[in-house]
Amino acid sequence: MQKSLQIKFQENPKMKELLKLNSYWYKDLNRSANNYKKFENAMKDLYKLRTTDKLSDAIENIDLISSVLNVLN
Question: Residues 50, 40: contact at Cβ < 8 Å?
Fold first, then answer.
């Protein structure tokens, strides 16, 4: 695996954890550094780090707060 990828994994604990849990990524990343983008997308999907996930969480929180306020009124 390239040193630059190893440094990225050391800097990001979520990537490091995903790599430990799913060791098949080692094979893919050793074959080609281009697979890093696939790995990064898989991590974002698993840990819900995409912008759409964050927006949907915010909308759910707003709905929850508004429903609590409606109950209180």
Answer: no
Q: How far is CA 48 from CA 39, 51, 53, 72, in A?
A: 14, 9, 6, 32
Q: What is the pLDDT along the chain (73 residues), one digit of tens a residue?
A: 889 989 999 999 999 999 999 999 999 999 988 999 999 999 999 999 999 999 999 999 999 999 999 999 7
| Cα dihedral sign, 9-14-20-26 | negative
What CA dihedral angle connects 47, 48, 50 and 55, to 10 degrees?
Answer: -150
> Using CA atoms, how far apart are residues 33 and 45, in angstroms rounded to an integer?
20
0.85 exceeded by the pTM?
no
